[in-house]
Amino acid sequence: MVTPPVLADRLAHVRAQIEAAALTAQRSVNDVTLVAVSKFHPASSVQEAIEAGQRVFGENRVQEAAAKFPALRAQHPDLRLHLIGGLQTNKAKEAVQLADMIESLDRPALADALAKAADAIGRLPELLIEVNTGDESQKFGISKENADPFIRTCRQRFGASLKGLMCIPPADQDPTPHFALLRSMAQTHGLPVLSMGMSADYPAAIAQGATLVRVGTAIFGPRPAAS
Ligand SMILES: *Cc1c(COP(=O)(O)O)cnc(C)c1O
Fold it and tell me: What per-residue confidence (pLDDT) applies to 2?
């Protein structure tokens, strides 16, 4: 009988791949942070990853993150939670309370809601602007055309809390040109953080300068069906 690799093995494999990709790109492995995307997986799986040394996690729904993370964080104060999914303005307050980083700022109305929530709560997470580099109508993210002015406005408004950019390339295309575009936009605006690359393409993203890679399936296995 073949037993599937345990989570710690898969995590070690991903870390080794990150190291190899950084080495090939002549970058320091310390400049690439692994965000373990635990969406749809139970808190027990997150706990397993924590025991294997992982500290940065990504969730795409505020509700799910709120159900899983406060208890884990109470035990592990050094955990970091990134919210990576499309965010409704009515969830802004809870998101600002929960997240260390929100990677999916993608429209003026959400910027308004986050600023208002931050004022009310007295805490502002780090922020990334999600860019819809493929201009796909069904996708989250600010359009390429509107990205530059939106980035400038957010910079003025959020200052150094605006850290960088995030993208999810179209599933059916070579991701490299999308990663390269995101890097050049971040360079233009002097933003240091580039969140790009998922299970299927994080080595290619690291080759293009990713500083955050968001990896779910390669660590946690296939996602259970959404409930
Ligand atoms: C689910 C998700 C990921 C992880 O995807 P995998 O293919 O499972 O690695 C990364 N980024 C975002 C925004 C996601 O929603």
Answer: 61
Instruction: Convert the pLDDT of each residue in 43-58 to its tens digit.
Output: 999 999 999 999 999 9
**C-beta of 38 in contact with ligand 1 (< 6 A):** no
CA 48 to CA 52: how far, in whole Å?
Answer: 6
Comparing 227 with 72, the larger pLDDT belongs to 72
Contact 202, 210 (CB under 8 A): yes
The CA R_g of the chain, rounded to the nearest whole Å, is 17
| 168 within ligand 1 shell (Cβ under 6 A) | yes
Atom of ligand 1 nearest to the CA of 103: 13
> What spacing in Å lies between the alpha carbon of 217 and ligand 1's midpoint?
8
Among candidates 195, 170, 175, 31, which has minimal Cα distance to 105? 195
Alpha-carbon distance values, 91 to 113, 119, 151 (Å): 9, 15, 22
What's the confidence (pLDDT) of residue 3?
A: 63
Indicate whether residue 37 lines ligand 1 (CB < 6 A): yes
